[in-house]
Design a protein that fits this description.
The chain has 11 helices and no strands. By secondary structure, it is mostly helical.
């Protein structure tokens, strides 16, 4: 910690940018491979529970399955074609082997991770809170990407985030322990209650249990006091974007919108904005 604090700001932020780009590249792998591995594992468990014979497809690549491959031809991507952002630009978003398109989302995630990481260190500093904030940010980025693709927030991401927030606040890193514990409980139960009331009235499920756990994690990190702001921010922005997509005819009225990304964005704003975000929202209200 002392070594990081002693660095010249330009050097520090340059290191954070490089780290953010590398982590962003890894998060792309998590977003792509982790849900597929989960689904395969669930199918295996179901077949075992139902005592069915084997017949599943081969296990998909997991996070540690070696080099990335072209989504079009399956060709293994060399290290010099896998440099964050730079390789995508030099190759003009195309596979060197087959010329197939490589999604722009890969450099976008890498750049976003680098930029958000710099903001975290700028706001919180290169100390325990800043390093914890980096981890919080990276998990939120992975959760956002997975939820956008699969409408899924894996327990493997949300639950460790809850426990880590409680552990950090044993030492009062972001709030006191009592507020963190109440925040985790209130975060989960508030959306749980909304979920069941909505289902009782409409007969439909308005969100998933992963959303409850993500809000519980935000409460565990920053205390129950931020929960009304997080819920109102996430709901307000989500409603505006949903109505805009419907108005532009990009989405039907019955198509569900992932709520996790809006919760993640609101939680991240609380991380870097702190009391200022809460006070600003109360002023608008």
């Amino acid at each position: 910690m002392e070594y990081l604090a002693a660095l010249h700001p330009a050097t520090l932020y340059a290191l954070v940018v490089v780290l953010g780009l590398l982590v962003g590249s890894f998060l792309n792998v998590v977003i792509l491979r982790f849900p597929a591995a989960l689904v395969h594992d669930w199918k295996c468990q179901c077949r075992e529970l139902l005592e069915l014979e084997a017949g599943l497809d081969a296990a998909p690549a997991n996070i540690a399955s070696g080099r990335s491959r072209c989504p079009s031809c399956g060709h293994s991507i060399a290290w010099y074609d896998n440099i964050p952002v730079i390789s995508w630009l030099l190759l003009r978003g195309r596979c060197r082997n087959c010329g197939g398109a490589i999604s722009v989302r890969y450099p976008v995630v890498e750049l976003a991770t680098a930029i958000l990481s710099v903001v975290v260190i700028w706001r919180l500093g290169p100390d325990t809170a800043g390093l914890a904030g980096l981890l919080f940010t990276w998990v939120l980025i992975a959760a956002t990407g997975i939820d956008l693709d699969y409408k899924l927030l894996p327990d493997q991401l949300t639950l460790p985030l809850v426990w880590l927030g409680l552990f950090l606040n044993v030492f009062g890193i972001f709030t006191d322990l009592q507020s963190a514990v109440i925040g985790a409980i209130a975060g989960y139960l508030s959306l749980w209650l909304v979920f069941h009331v909505f289902r009782l009235i409409t007969g439909k499920e308005g969100m998933g249990y992963g959303d409850f756990k993500l809000l519980a994690a935000i409460g565990a990190w920053f205390g129950w006091q931020v929960l009304p702001t997080v819920i109102l921010l996430a709901s307000g922005v989500g409603a505006v974007i949903g109505l805009a997509l419907i108005a532009l005819r990009r989405m039907g009225r019955e198509v569900p919108i992932a709520f996790g990304p809006f919760l993640a964005a609101a939680g991240w704003l609380v991380l870097v904005g702190g009391d200022a975000i809460v006070d600003f929202w109360l002023l608008l209200s």
